[in-house]
Model the fold of this input.
Amino acid sequence: MNDEDFRRARLAALYDPLGPDRSDLRAYLDLVGELGARHVLDIGCGTGVFALLLAERGIGVVGVDPARASIDVAESKPGSGRVEWVCGTTTALPPLRVDLATMTANVAQEIAGLEAWQATLRGAFEALRPGGHLVFETRDPARRAWEAWNREASHSVTDVPGLGAVESWVDLLNVDGALVSFRWNYVFADGQVLTSDSMLRFRDRQEVERDLVAHGFAVEDVRDAPDRPGRELVFIASRPVAAHPGQTSAEGRRSAAPKTSTSMAPCSNRPTPGPADLDGEPGKG
Done:
């Protein structure tokens, strides 16, 4: 995860004020109930919004994020003592056996490097109990969401308590195959100007399914995001309980063909890192 917004204290503090509407998380909350999850790992927890919603409902939560500034914001919130916070990646987790691991708000795309992505999947697999699930969404690269990432579409001025008016917008920097880089710009009322450069990887469905299976998961479903139909893919994968008699675990994973649903999915999340609610705006959980 490479977003400077979540590593620098002044920018991390802007995340919630610039994106206050998190009604997008209702779908993930519904999925927690659907799967009967009582222990959840929130990968890329950011400022802790989703983790704290779970904790309020009596769910045991571990929130992990490599950005110290974001973890600091999360730990400052009411109820934060009910969550176990880990500053790091899934390679830094204590031994876990959770029912569900999530990556909300397109966190999966923030993990742009191949080695980091593989390490994340390995860590998620190890953290799940047999039969537990990994759920995340990613933008469909065929929709070319980055074409709308510009100042005209994203410019906004937001009154932030304690800071005054904060002007913000996003500029597209480069598109190199599956890698898309962009820059968030922030102008504070005191005259300070800060920028945050980020990169996302746009993986297609076949690549994601291949990566999941290669790391031991069974892909149970690939769904259409209910709040962004036709624009995002929602993956539901599980750590298999056991192979069938006479069948290796690898054979069992290959035999679990994913279903495809186009309307029913209760699991998606709208990225809200900035002030504007744009179609496909870049963001993190």
